[in-house]
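Researcher: Please translate sequence to structure tokens.
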Amino acid sequence: MIQINSNEIDFILRTLDLPPEIERRLKSVELSKGITDEMAEDLRERCIDLLDEVGFDNDYKLTEIGVGLDVLIDKLFVG
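Model: Translation complete:
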């Protein structure tokens, strides 16, 4: 299980284009229990894809969204 806080959940819901089932499951997460490794891996892959698309400016510096995605990519790593 990966611990995730309400701010991170809000960021994910605002930023990622999620299928309805994943969105529903994420909205119902009990913060004390966290998210499953499977969900973490799925969300991490989506963060990586979006980071490639919108995470950097013209000078290849992280944008505000890129910073949030980068933090989540690290946090959602299942090792």
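Researcher: Any highlights?
Model: The radius of gyration is 12 Å.
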